[in-house]
Input
Amino acid sequence: MSTHLYFANNSIRNTTITCDSLGIHYNVSKTGRIISLSRWDSKNNLDVTVGEFELPFFKKDRIKVGPNGQWQDMRDYFDKSGSFLTSKTFTSNNGMNYTWKEHWGKMIVRSTRIHRARLTDDALIKYHRNMSDSYLEVLDSSTLTDLDTILLAFLITERKRRNKQKQRRSARASGGGP
Output
């Protein structure tokens, strides 16, 4: 059975991501140009910063992972293989490698693992974007331990995907080019 993490709205900059039955509560907020992701810690009843990122127009994108992390170039955080705009490969806080990628119109996260002497590449999480209720469908519960970095990478990947989509619509509306 899958777990659903619901978004309060379709914003990637200001929303909450929750699964009440598991006590999962994340907050996404934007202050200036910085987008922050924090997780509610039920033991201490505090919000813990998971990470922050900035996607400036004329400067390099940057990311800070963890409450005490240092700002770094986003290209140094994500794996350089593959297309940087359409997929993001990263290492989670528990050392697993994941990739967010668009697949048949949906964002999915996969982990490439060796399984019985062959490479497997199964979807672990799917993003379902609807007008009324968007959610992440967690298909493999083992990914819940890596949720902090998976969500941070998702926000960046989805923001870049939406920006690219917006640019395509703008180009079509203006006649498509030179």
